[in-house]
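Dear Dr. H.,

I hope your travels went smoothly. While you were away I took the liberty of generating a structure for the chain from your last submission, since the lab meeting agenda had it listed for discussion. I wanted you to have the full record in hand beforehand rather than looking at slides cold. The sequence, exactly as received, is reproduced here:
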Amino acid sequence: METKLLNQAENRPKGFRVGMRHILLLSAMGVAVLGGAASFQLQQDGSHFPRGWRMAGIDLSGMSLAAARQRLEQIAGAWNRTPLTVEAQTPDGITRWRGQVTREQLGASLDVDATLQHARQQVKQYSPLVRMVLAWVHRQTDKEIAPIVRVDDSRLRAWLYSVGKKVETSPRDAGIRYLSRGHWEVVPEQPGLRFTADVVQRLTEALQRSETTCVLPLEETPPRITRQHLQPIDSEWAAAVTHYSERERNRSYNIRKAAESINGTVLLPGDEFSYNRVVGPRTLKEGFRRAPVIIKGELVPGDGGGVCQVSTTVYMAALQAGLRIVQRSHHAFPIHYAPPGMDATVVYGAIDLRFRNDTLSPIALVAEAKGGRMSVRVLGSSIHKRQVAIQRVVHAVLPAPVKTFPTNKLPAGITRVADKGQRGWRVSVYRVITEPGKPPVREKVTTDYYRPQARVVLVGQGQPEQKTPPAVAPASASSVEEQQM
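The corresponding predicted structure, in token form, is as follows:
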């Protein structure tokens, strides 16, 4: 048996063994070649993008990272200058505003380094073998790489703020329009518009996605006071009137302007009125004019002169309506348009007039300055109307001291009154308030002291006046003759 097998092996052709060695050698060489080619291909594919890859409008197919960087830097400037169309739409889909702004103006910029780093990480997600096979078979893998965009939040918000001033509107509360005594009407409220809270996020995402349009939604802002709030107002609680001279044009203008700011003010139960907040700064920039004002007890020209007459009239009306007085200051000396103890001075940023609606009814202030007559009315519900009696108690009236000053501008012995001065006062104000279903309550409101203002008299020290003798008419010829005779 063994002899037979041996004979069979000996009978095989010798060339067979030689061919096998050749095949093995060729196979080893092929593997080496393929390995080298694969290694070279992998090295190449590790720094090149696969076919079908795109980024920011660039075809990256087979492009190296260096070439991609150069191309991306070229288009970064154009990307930054690309306009973005922005629309502001109301809740019902109406475009309230439309405009264009460049990405750069919104604080956006394309980050080249970060974008390439992100793209490289995307390439590495494919294994080397997969990249090699895809390259050999020319298989395309479509992929869009989003560029990395940096957004300056402060610049974006600054632009939104500037647009908001054009687009957004404040809600308008319902109000009262006074027609005549005992007659008024309710002015309906009107909602406002504002950007929704997510507009910054919407703009940021549109920039990061390189979009060319972005819609910013608007939402309604409800008013604080509606018609329903004002329905209970059916009665006039109090009215106060002071008078001014229309000949003082600047002062009259300031009075009318301040009255217009107050007219229609509504206070819900618990609300507080602030004269300085409602009227605002009394400066030339705000439209007021220069007129006499009291500063440190002296009457001097100043911005907004006359507004204290409006605050005084408002104070008198609030007193008569029985509202709680929170802050009030009197003038240094009595003024001509209100009794001592009934005035209220104001200085923006320093002295305010404040009172609170401590009733259960909404109230409205009606202020009007016309024809030298400044009037303020308080309207409210007849159910919660308070009966108020004002009592003034004068504790002392102090005469004005007299101060004399010599002057050479007047002849000796001649006097002239430069300032009439003011009497001083010490006075208290009380009021008796009767609410429906409650007993009367007497309260002390204020005790005020007005220091007297000196009467200034100028006494002449100059040269006495020269008395001119009366002129004598020349005698006629006939009279001369008579005398001679």
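Two observations you may find useful: Confidence is low (pLDDT under 50) at residues 1-6, 31-46, 475-485. The chain has three domains: 2-37, 53-221, 232-462.

With kind regards,
E. W.
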